[in-house]
């Protein structure tokens, strides 16, 4: 069965994925009106999922540092400015409370697999959004 690898397979722990998702949702939060959320909450969820996958499915999408301001949900993701080796991600996700890096070092093979599986999920979300639009019309 194909899937995004788990932490024991060299990927990210669940809390790291959660913080990446929180950051992605916060970036998109100003684009949703309360009317849209009330009218079609499924579209809003699909849009947020699509934004998450668009944000992190590039080769450099998981190469950077995610940091939350202490005691808030305000976050920043900074891409690493230096040239890097192809297919190598140096992801740092700082724990909002302790400042400890929650992302273990990732091998190039794991990085490629993550990007591939997230691209598959992204395509599935995009298809679902298209189907949702067609069904509403």
Automatic annotation (TrEMBL):
UniProt keyword list: Signal
Signal peptide: 1-26
Protein known as: NTP_transf_2 domain-containing protein
Naturally occurring in which organism (per UniProt): Durusdinium trenchii
